[in-house]
Amino acid sequence: MNYLGHAVLSFGNPETLAGNMIGDYVKGSVILDSFPENIKKGIQLHRKIDAFADQHPASLKAKNLFRPDYRLYAGAFVDSLYDHFLANDPHFFPAEKSLFDFSQKVYADLDKQREWLPEQFQKMLPYMVSSNWLYNYRTLKGMKNSFDGLVRRAKYLDSSDKAYEILVGHYYELNQYYFDFIDDVSKYVKNELNNI
Length: 196
Known about the structure:
single chain, mainly alpha, 71% helix, hydrolase, lipid metabolism, ACP_PD, lipid biosynthesis, DUF479 domain-containing protein
């Protein structure tokens, strides 16, 4: 899952949200002790979600579609497209406005936790807010932008065109993989929140 997925799976706790959103920006275990307890739990939760997603049968099938062209980056594309299907899932967001309102609450909650956000995340956050990444995952244009951003950050990729073709060409298959995955990860996270 990408940013929207991690935000949704924080279940409304602002500190857990902050930790969950910065999980990729915090490396190692020693540094965790410098964070407040709930942010630390959010970081740990982020790592558990990523590990669960990487090994889920639906994710493995989805990654197989991307692997011939993107090898080790296949999982990153699948994480991003899960956010697209989540943004359009009426179980979580019954209308566009509910997704928009959710995105604004996430940005406001992150702003209140700014002192705990790593510098690299702080630099990226204004772009996330001004382009409303969380909201724009819902459109195919937003997904093309997301895929392009992934390529810009990757060391060994130069185009996301093929990934976008795979998304469009296998749209319903990938959507089914999302549905096979989302209930499992939601149950897993609810259980893990009680055990971290």
